[in-house]
Amino acid sequence: MANVASAEGSLTQEMDIFSLGCVIAEIFLEGASIFTLAQLFKYKKGEYKPPLGDIEDESIRSLVMSMISLDPAERLSADEYLNQWTDKAFPKYFEFLHEYIENISRPLQSVGNTERARHVESDQRIEMIWKNYRRISRELGLVVDDSELDGPGHVRSGNEEKGEKNGYIRGEYGDVDLTFTSTVGGDVIPVCLDLPGMDNWIPKKKKTLPGDHDDGALIVVAVVCSAIRNTLRSSSKIKACDLLLALGEQIHDEAKLDRCLPYLMSLLDDTSDNVQVAALRSLTQLLTLVGAITPINDKIFPEYIFPRLTLLLQDRSSVVVRAAYAACLPTLAQIASRFLDMGQILQTTGIMSEKDPDIENGAVITEDDRKRAYDVIKQDLSLVIEEHARSLLTDHNPDIRRALLRHIVPLCLFLGRQKTNDVILSHAITYLNDSDAQLRMQLFDSVVGIAPYVGSVSLKEYVTPLMMQSLTDSEELVVNKVVQAFTALAGLGLLEMSYIWELLRACAKFMVHPNNWIRNSTFCLFASSTRWMSPAQIYSMLWPILQPFMEGDINDFSVASLSIHAKPPLPREIYNLTATWATKAQKSIFWKTEASHNKSTKRDKTIDLSNEKNRSSKPKNLRATAEDEQWLTRLRVIGMKESQLWMLALYKEYIFRVFRSRSRRVDERHSPTGGDNTSPFIKMQDLGILPQNVFFDTTPIDDGFSDLLSSSAIKGRINSKTSSPVFVDEHFEATRLLAADVDETDSAGGSGRLGGSNSDSKWRELIMAHPVTGTVFTDVYGELDSQLRDSQLLDGGSGITPSKETLKYSSYTGDDPYIWRMLGSVYKDSVTFESPEFGPRCSPYTGSMKPENITKKRKGKMGILAANYEEHAGPVNAIAVAPDHSFFVTGSDDGTVKIWDSFRLEKNVINRAAKTVHFKAEQEKPNQVKCICFIENTYSLACGTTDGSVNLIRVETVNQSSSLSGPRYKPVVKLNGFKLNSGEYAIALSHGQTSSSSLLYVLTTDSRIVVFDLIAKKQVAVMENPSSHGIPTCFVLDKHKNWVLVGTSRGILDLWDTRFQVHIRSWGIPGGQPINSLSLYMNPKAEGKWVCVSGGTKECEITVWDIETVQCREIYRTTPQLSSHRHRHGESSSRREPTPTANYSPVDVDKSMVNGNNNGPPTLSILLSQLKLQTDQEEQRHNDDTQTERPSQHDEPPRADSILSLSSGYSIDHTATGPNRRGYLLSGGTDRIVRFWDLNALDHSTIISGIKAEATYQPSYVLSYPEPNTRLVTERLVSSVSSSSSQSHKSSSSKKPSKSDRPPRSTIIACEQLDLSRNHQSSVLAVALLLKPFEMVVSADRLGTIKVYI
């Protein structure tokens, strides 16, 4: 190399400068080189010019041009470049920062171990930067002088500000404490930095930063972040957190999130609690400094920060860390909401990408998608923060709850009023019973900030009454905090004036309290209350309350005046001795009368303080026994005067409550059972007993061996084994013998598991041991693993050897028969048995319908007809929707059940059902399908026919690859059903699934409710409805299967308890008309208690009844002006307008019965009259539907329409305050109109079909309250013609109509045809709602027509 250098020339400094220029240019060109080898040769010849135009900085461009000059003489030295380009290409602090970074980066020579040297170097590097931060900030231009620290974010240690002294600031009503408490989590936020050589200050957000202002700070940040990775000492990590926060104030927002935040998040995994707290504090304060975010950071909270902070809520985190997080959570919630809003602004302004990378082909995000995504993220964020808040509010450590309460206000602002009441207030009021006095004090410190967010109703009904009760708290400091909270609430005007008077009367006695803090707080309360009083109120109402406690008359009601003129307080010695008297009194009348007053709601006025005589003499009602006189003597000995007896009587109730509660808290604190000494329960852990977990095998076990119990072999062995003169349960003994045979078979090498094809009910009966009257001392262990033969049962021996490998239905291996019996009961009640014959279980559709979609899809007044089917040859009596809404089923009088595919309603142009099931009659009479219901969460359904059969069928499907095409259908499988009594058939069906049974409830024409067990294939219960109440027409089953309500032809409702088969009550609906349909009221406010009833009254309306109180709660009444079969012929309905004050009181069935005995058989005349009534009604409805109605020759009023079918459900609205359930109803009847009723919002109610296309009116709904507890919703018709058109109509009404004003005949015919095809032409007998593939309403009428509306 030396020879080459000498031959070609030596390396010079100018060459290094040329290389440095190329490197600098490559840096500013983001890695692109300015020369290739060929270009370099051309540049040397002057044939190439480097592309330096892409360098935006003019100073850097001129510097590079000078460094790569072709003439080496034109290139300057390094020192000359630094001097000439300082404050141009190089900042002023370049030389300092270069020298400083070089000094702190020197490796240590004294430490031999390389790994340890790296750790020590990192610790020393952070220590040096922390000590020299003042010099670094000055050199980098971060802080010009000390005057920059004097601002809103600066905190001087000496409290030099005017009016502030020793941590207190002088206010109008006294000194307000500004210092932080020294408890856990007290001074977490905001972070006050204390770096060497600098005054304490709180980092604040910078309004604007120059373009290159933060370059030096970013270099120091990089050094600190690199050192954090290898630090060894916790103190260095804490100082690094302070440095990142101090430097984060000086850098731009993107660097705060991209460079500082990840390292602070990594420190949350540190083993030191102090480091975790420091990182959490700095993290929270750093995020408050962020004023703008980049698009990549719009979801930083839900996807990065909160998932990591969730780990801090675990029990393995220390109390200090959880308390610090509790203090930071409200601030983080507020920052997260601000970040989400900034992200939405970026999307709205178009800064953020309009394409979603998660969507194939990069589909463009629309405005609706953007709003929907914002709502979803907002809701998810709210749920996460709500979950964290609940976890902290319910933490077992009071320090954590106290830390959260201290900073609760931003969290209330984030959650809103509803969530503040549900989450924060509901947990906070439970702290009043907590034994920690500091927690109760902090609660009343925070209640002033919470009060504006909970609302006036919660403040009046919950907060202030509990605060009033806390005035008798056992801790005087808590009482002082309560009075201070009342003072702040009164000063803010949050208390009503009527409540303020009650409050002042209750707190007036504290003016003579021995505690000076309570006295001063009481003076502040009275002074603050006068702010909202007129002079007349002060002297006429306030002064009589104050006068007994003042030495004389006063004109000034300030704090100073009240404290000067107030009477001396009750001495502490007298107060304490009186408290001792109250706690130790045994034969005292004085305190016993007070105890009786506490139990009574009425209070006697013990003393009239407005009378001077009562304040200067012994009160007249101060009754005392000999024991009381002894205590009074002791009080006089220590200095009590006779003039102070009125104070004693005044504080009697207060002292009694305070010290009784104090003694109770002391007992709870020292009680080994947590304060409940009278509890009849003993904790097993206190006795040192370790619980044992028992696991059950939930695999269905076939029980073919159950039939063997009836075999002669088993019975013979039972008789031979039980020769003792005791009564032994055959089931128990058979189980024992079978287990013994299995054990013997297993020992011989065979498989001993029992199997079979029968249902599981017999196996459950075998497990559930029947009561026995004798004792069997032999314990049996067996393995039920295969099916046994009769020969195996006959060859078994009597020897029994327990085997640990035997498989049982539980993991219990003991031999206690009582535990086995208990496990058998638990197994039966907890394990769900499913029958394979009903097919696999399908997942029910969890989506919900939005009432707004039903309303918005109405173009005018009508629904859009999507499909029209006329395949049925008779009236359609029932519609049932599959659990997953993939298809629906209809049953008709033509004896068929048809299956309709929901996904092919619009594509099915041939108007054919997917599958049809025919039920042939055994006799010549036609077999009609009257009712249908699905077996819960399966594709199997039950059908009731008029031949007395309850048929079970299973719909076989094959899922296709596309989720939008729906399933393909196989032939329908008919299962074994049930047969009712001769001449009896099912009217209504309902299915109920429990953990151990599948029950089918059948309402029959013989007034019976028959319950079949579909697994056991047998009848398990029968409930006979009173025949005198009428023929059953419908029933409804509770969703918890606890009760069933039956409606009859005489307008009577019968309530049954299905658990005990007990008839609970009966009542009649005013009007006595047949009840057509029943449905559950799906509104969450009364779900499970209210039932919707159509019929019963003489109006076309739906009534809602409370089955607990037997009261009519709501009425949904249709308009008498709508009647499709009358409007079709140009007639107006003459149905009378019902009065709003109609009587809806329940009818006493016992008094109204003519027959006298409800449970006895009815007379022949009553049965004939009921049958005639039902026949006449059917014929009249049929005539109305099939014949043209003619005007009556008599003046009799026409028959009123009635609602024949109901269908109820609910929707879920996801609002900012959480999910909200809303109920709805679908109805159809003889007026041929299908209506949608929204139970919560009347504006969403509408008419789906039934109005003529050319009608000029639309329905509206009016809410009224005819009775205090009855809600009436009335349907009205409102003209849809505009006011201008109505005025023009009035102006031209005087003119005779001309032929040109009439519509053309073709138009009239087209409208009539449209009306015939779109509306039902007969009574609507069944309605249902489909939710897949979108919301659709299905209705069917008496002519067999099925219409689907969207």
From TrEMBL:
Its EC number is 2.7.11.1. Residues 601-623, 1120-1204, 1278-1305 are annotated as: Disordered. Residues 1279-1291 have a biased composition (Low complexity). GO terms for molecular function: ATP binding; protein serine/threonine kinase activity. Transmembrane segments: none annotated. Pfam families: PEP5_VPS11_N (PF23341), VPS15-like_hel (PF22956). Keywords: ATP-binding, Kinase, Nucleotide-binding, Repeat, Serine/threonine-protein kinase, Transferase, WD repeat. HEAT repeats lie at residues 260-292. One of its GO terms (biological process) is late endosome to vacuole transport. InterPro entries: 2AA_helical (IPR055231), ARM-like (IPR011989), ARM-type_fold (IPR016024), HEAT_type_2 (IPR021133), PEP5_VPS11_N (IPR057307), Prot_kinase_dom (IPR000719), Vps15-like (IPR045162), WD40/YVTN_repeat-like_dom_sf (IPR015943). This is non-specific serine/threonine protein kinase. It comes from Sugiyamaella lignohabitans.
